[in-house]
Write a structure and sequence with these properties.
Elements (H helix, E strand, L loop, with lengths): L2 H23 L7 E4 L2 E4 L1 H12 L10
Antiparallel strand pairs: 1-2
Length: 65
């Protein structure tokens, strides 16, 4: 992985820690197209909605890079 890519991941992680899912999603491409458990979503707003609902299934969800 290039140093440039490492910096993008660090910035995205800092956005997650600072602003949660909304901040992290700002690092996604506008036309993101993801296949996930339970379906497929396209676009930042659909991704935020899907992950917000998914994360809501857990009482205590913690992520570490």
């Amino acid at each position: 992985m290039s140093e440039e890519n490492v910096e993008v991941v660090r910035a995205a992680w800092a956005a997650w820690e600072r602003d949660g899912l909304a901040g992290f999603a700002e690092y996604w491409a506008d036309d993101i197209d993801w296949r996930a458990i339970g379906g497929r979503w396209r676009g930042k707003e659909a991704g935020r909605e899907y992950l917000h609902d998914w994360l809501g299934l857990f009482d205590d969800f913690n992520v570490e890079p």
